[in-house]
Design brief:
Layout: E1 2-6, H1 10-22, E2 26-30, H2 33-41, E3 47-51, H3 59-68, E4 75-79, H4 84-92, E5 97-100, H5 105-120, E6 126-129, E7 132-135, E8 140-143, E9 149-151, H6 154-165, E10 171-172, H7 173-181, H8 189-205, E11 210-215, E12 219-224
Parallel strand pairs: 1-2, 1-3, 3-4, 4-5
Antiparallel strand pairs: 6-7, 7-8, 8-9, 10-12, 11-12
Helix pairs in contact: 2-3, 6-7, 6-8, 7-8
Length: 227
């Protein structure tokens, strides 16, 4: 998942970037409001971590201008101000969540995961890409073009969910293994291969034109249409 961090405190930015990259976020950093807004308006990012106090343009103005431009990317605002009115102002400016400094890394990561889930799922709990839709309440996969559907195993569902959430990226086998089985699991890369095969068979069963393509020597990516 591609994340934009807009933070002018160099030590804070470096520490957060390291934490986020360890969690397999692809992180770009901006140290001032003007370059940060330009980066947001590129539309390249899945999630934005935005400091309130920045040189050039503050976080409130950045959030407001991004929303006026039609940018709907989730924004987590960081600030040293903990008053209720400050939080309300931040949320009303267009931020989706608000975290007060200092904070624990675990809380930051939990809030980012929540925002990421909110970003990829629709209001009715479905997740879509190309001609497929996933239902989080039933773990079912359906093809909107054929009307066919099939139930997924938990790991098949997680694989498709993760691929859709990172649809603009190639995911490595290591990323998939950690995401699906966890850091403490003894799962090997062949587990990824096996469940990829299962998941591809489910896509074929519903006659979807969405495909999981192997990128030699790197990992996997999701494609639709002319694959």
């Amino acid at each position: 998942m591609k994340l934009l961090l807009i933070e002018d405190e160099q030590r804070m930015a470096q520490a957060l970037s390291e934490i986020l990259r360890q969690e397999h976020y692809e992180v770009d950093c901006c140290a001032d409001g003007l370059s940060g807004l330009d980066a947001i308006e590129s539309g390249l990012y899945d999630i934005i971590v935005l400091d309130l106090m920045l040189p050039g343009k503050n976080g409130l103005d950045i959030a407001r201008e991004a929303r006026k431009c039609g940018i709907r990317t989730p924004i987590l605002m960081l600030t040293a101000k903990s008053g209720l009115d400050d939080k309300v102002l931040g949320l009303d400016s267009g931020a989706d969540d608000y975290l007060t400094k200092p904070f624990m890394a675990k809380e930051l990561l939990a809030r980012l995961r929540a925002l990421a889930r909110r970003n990829i799922h629709s209001a009715d709990g479905t997740l879509s890409f190309g001609d497929i839709a996933l239902d989080s309440s039933t773990f079912s996969l359906s093809c909107t073009a054929t009307g066919l559907s099939v139930r997924l195993s938990e790991k098949e569902y997680k694989i498709l969910e993760y691929l859709i959430a990172n649809q603009s990226q190639i995911l490595t086998r290591e990323q998939l293994a950690v995401k699906i089985w966890g850091y403490d699991s003894e799962a090997e890369y062949n587990n990824v291969e096996v469940y990829m095969s299962f998941t591809r068979k489910k896509l074929a069963f519903v006659e979807s034109k969405t495909a999981i393509k192997a990128v030699r020597g790197i990992g996997y990516e999701l494609r639709w249409g002319h694959v």
